[in-house]
Design a protein that fits this description.
By secondary structure, this protein is α+β, with helices and mostly antiparallel strands. It has a domain of 68 residues: 3-Layer(aba) Sandwich (MutS, DNA mismatch repair protein, domain I). Helix content is 26%, strand content 23%. It contains three helices and six strands; from the N terminus they run E-H-E-E-H-E-E-H-E. It has a six-stranded mixed beta sheet, with helices on both faces. The longest helix is centred in the N-terminal third of the chain and has 13 residues.
Length: 131
């Protein structure tokens, strides 16, 4: 699977400035859908940066990133696949509000990687590529 980056931004303070939030184990290897596998590939490339993936009208944040970002962004943390072996923390922000949420992440010392669709949905007959 080939993944390309959209935007990568860093805030002041770097990783040392991050809030202390409990970390959950992130079952990236258990993600079985093609979409979740694509996001897992993007996250491997993002490294320590919080990955915000555009999904329709929202930027979704999954796994450990969601656990760390939700308190900083003051948004609800929930679970994708609740009750399954691939249960994964998730949170998200509306795409039109990214400009108000991104500075909060950066001010808390996080870096962010933003994955956008790289094709129009009507032009693709399978998984929408993101980069």
């Amino acid at each position: 699977m080939e993944c390309q980056w959209g935007t990568r931004v860093s805030g002041p303070g770097g990783p040392e400035g991050r809030s202390k939030v409990p970390i959950l184990l992130n079952p990236w290897n258990l993600m079985s859908t093609p979409m979740l596998q694509q996001i897992a590939g993007l996250k491997r490339e993002a490294g320590e940066a919080v990955l915000l993936t555009r999904m329709g009208d929202f930027y979704e944040i999954l796994g450990e990133d969601a656990v760390r970002a939700a308190p900083v962004l003051e948004i609800a943390l929930t679970l994708r696949g609740k009750g399954s072996d691939a249960e994964t923390p998730i949170c998200g922000v509306p795409h039109f509000a990214l400009e108000s949420y991104l500075p909060k992440l950066l001010a808390a010392g996080f870096s962010a990687a933003i994955a956008e669709p790289t094709a129009k949905a009507e032009d693709v007959k399978s998984l929408l590529p993101r980069g």
